[in-house]
Amino acid sequence: YNKASCFADTLFIWYAPIHYYDNDIKLNLFPNPVTNSAQIEINYNGQKTFTAKVFSILGIEVMSFKVFSNSTNTFDASQLSGGAYFLKLLDEDGNNLSAMRFIKSE
What we know:
Blueprint: H1 10-15, E1 18-20, E2 26-30, E3 37-43, E4 49-56, E5 61-68, E6 72-76, E7 83-90, E8 96-104
Antiparallel strand pairs: 1-8, 2-3, 3-6, 4-5, 4-7, 7-8
């Protein structure tokens, strides 16, 4: 199992829209479905930088970017094709903190 891979979470997340590995983190993505851009909010005790990774439904990483806690982060989804994706939030050591699915509309 590779921490950066999304494959192990795929079956669980199809039934639950979001999964928290760390209960101190609250992740919100809107709007969902996403058009050209989306907002990501991360509620966490203290200011921290995280890595957000976007995976295709096949578990292939298609995007990676930095996000900050306790602020609204915008990401450009215009390069993504329409379909289902997973967003994973990782700490600076690469540990999974949260995962959620979202839809990219065309």
